[in-house]
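ARCHIVE RECORD
Type: protein–small molecule complex
Small molecule: zinc ion
Source of inputs: curated submission
Record status: active
Notes field left blank by submitter.
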Amino acid sequence: MNDPFFTQQKCGCGNDLNIRIMSWFTDRTICMECSDKEKDIRAKLPEHGRQHEGCGYIPEV
Ligand SMILES: [Zn+2]
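STRUCTURE (tokenized, with ligand):
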């Protein structure tokens, strides 16, 4: 129905969602910039963040 993945206009950081990417950590739709940040975080996590997939928050690293 109203899937936020398609209706959400802006990312949590305020950027327009021209490109829609699913967050690794949460069920949110995020922008390219935030996705890059998640990639940095994942790179620092054990098992490349596999244990934190869909955990609902962004882990501190
Ligand atoms: Zn963003």
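CURATOR ANNOTATION: Residues 32-44 form the longest helix (13 residues).
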